[in-house]
Every structure is written in C-alpha cells, then in structure tokens.
Write a structure and sequence with these properties.
Blueprint (H helix, E strand, L loop, with lengths): L1 H7 L2 H34 L10 H35 L10 H14 L2 H20 L7 E4 L2 E8 L3 E5 L5 E5 L8 E3 L7 E9 L5 H17 L10 E6 L4 E9 L5 H19 L7 E4 L2 E4 L2
Antiparallel strand pairs: 1-2, 1-5, 2-3, 3-4, 6-8, 7-8, 9-10
Helix pairs in contact: 2-3, 3-4, 3-5, 6-7
C-alpha cells in the first residue's frame, strides 16, 4: 500500500493531472471566446442567430470546432503521457513506470470499465462531427431527416444532434448512433430548397380541365412570394390506380418557409378548382388487404 501511495504522489503524476485540468479549462474558455467572436461578426453583418450563413464560412467554423474537440480528447490520453514519459526517461534515478505509467494505466482502466459508454459516445460523436465537417454532408441550419425525424439542425454536438421540428418540438438524437443511418438533407447548406406538391384529380376530368388545372398550379407557384424565381418550375403528370396525379416541383426561396409556400399554392389552386368545377380525387392505398386514404 505504501508503495502504491508513493507511486501516486510521484511529481509526474501531479504534472499529468494538472495539465489535464488546465487543458479542459483552456478548451472551455476558448470555445466560449470563439462563440462570442462568431456572434459579434454576425451582428456586425446584421445576421441573426437563426439566419443561414454562407456555407463555406460555416464549414470552416465547424472544421475548427471539430478539430479543437478532437485535440482536447487526444492530447491528455495519448500525447501527454508519451511526452512526459520521454522527459522522465532522461532524468537520473527515476523510474517512469513507478508513477506516470501507473496513473495512465489507471486512467485507461477507468475509461474501459466505468466510462465505456461515455468514452464511446464522446469518441463516436467527435469522429462523426469531424467527418461531417470535412465531407460537407450537412451543417447547422439545414433541414434534414434523421432516424425518422425531420427538422432544422440546431446543433451538432459531441453527444447529441438537436433538431427542431415543424411543430416546434426539440429532438435529440445520439451523435454516435448516426454512423449507420441514412441522412436526407433538404437544402444541403443552401438557403433555397426543392418543394414537391402532389395534386390528385378524378379520372372523370377531361383534357381541357386538366390543362386549366396545370396552368392554374403553375400560376399559383409563380404568384407566391415564397418562390425562388431563379430556380426552375416543373410539373409532371402520371396515371394512378384511382386518380390522375399531377406533381408540381419548384424551389422555395427560404427552406424554412416551405410550409407557408405549400399553403399558398394549395389554397390558390383549390379556390380556382372550386370556381371552375374541376373534379378532384382522394387517392387510396392498399395495405394488408385494406383500403385507406393516402397521406
């Protein structure tokens, strides 16, 4: 017991523990300083916290943050023990295994047995953030679908990715669990995003009414204040089992306004359809031998 106590009060053990604490404090205050600087630059540019910034600028910020967090994790676990051990080997009458290596071994055992879940979550989260930053798959502010949840990305953290849904719910998804998940991004860092609106007509509709409906939908999209006029508008026609489906594709200028844009276009067309007596339809789907209305 006395030998073990002597090992633990080794000067290099104290240096190692002190450096770990200092690194954590420096990382915390550095991140806080960086966030303040970013907020200051955004205010000078007249940008609010919820406004999308230039994708390249945001990716640079995300890469820096991910690199700093990876450095904070690797420095005390890998770099510091090796550096201190090399220094200790040059000192006379000192056996590194009696202190520094023992402390590092105990620290590694703690991570293995007591901190396994936390360590895995942290390592997986940092790795995911780093890969995401350099692969440019998605960023804060994007509208994405992850593990069945759709919403705006509020934060890509070490432990959780936070989404804000259209119903203003906050969804927290473990970052380390996203490695095997498919990612659907509506805007991929861009301000505009594609909007798809389906319309269903009765099979009793004639060619003239169908052309009128197509022209009305086209006009409804062009007349909306939420449309991005620089992007193309497309309309596709297809024959379904119990109806005729017309699919309208266009781009909304701000991805966050997609629900308002859909409401604008749908409301304008329904008014036109009622006035012109255009027969609409409710499509049905067959599931497990039972008929139900399509969403």
């Amino acid at each position: 017991m006395d030998d073990l106590f002597a090992m633990l009060i080794d000067p290099f053990v104290g240096i190692y523990v002190a450096l770990i604490i200092v690194i954590q404090y420096i990382a915390y205050y550095w991140n806080a300083y960086q966030k303040k600087q970013i907020s200051k630059r955004r205010r000078l540019l007249g940008l609010g916290d919820q406004i999308l910034v230039n994708q390249a600028q945001r990716l640079v910020e995300l890469k820096k943050e991910a690199s700093n967090q990876a450095l904070v994790l690797l420095l005390p676990i890998i770099v510091l023990p090796i550096v201190l051990w090399l220094i200790s080997t040059r000192m006379e009458d000192y056996s590194p295994e009696k202190g520094l290596l023992l402390t590092f071994f105990i620290f590694a055992l703690w991570l293995l047995f007591n901190g396994t879940d936390i360590a895995r979550a942290a390592l997986g989260g940092i790795a995911f953030r780093t890969i995401t930053a350099f692969s440019e798959s998605f960023q804060v502010g994007d509208r994405v679908t992850l593990r069945g949840h759709s919403g705006k990305v509020l934060e890509i953290g070490i432990f959780y990715v936070k989404l804000q849904t259209a119903d203003d719910d906050l969804v927290c998804i473990p970052t380390s669990s996203l490695w095997s998940e498919n990612l659907l991004s509506a805007n991929a860092g861009e301000r505009a995003s594609l909007c798809v609106i389906p319309f269903y007509f009765s099979t009793r509709i004639d060619a003239q009414q169908l052309q009128m409906a197509e022209d009305a939908i086209w006009g409804s999209m062009q007349g909306s204040t939420y449309l991005d006029p620089e992007k193309p508008i497309q309309i596709y026609l297809s024959q379904e089992r119990d109806c005729i489906k017309l699919t309208a594709k266009s781009y909304v200028a701000s991805t966050y306004n997609e629900p308002l844009y859909k409401s604008d276009v749908t409301h304008a067309f329904l008014q036109f359809a009622r006035a012109k007596h255009i027969p609409l339809a409710t499509p049905y789907l067959i599931e497990d031998g039972k008929q139900r209305e399509a969403p």
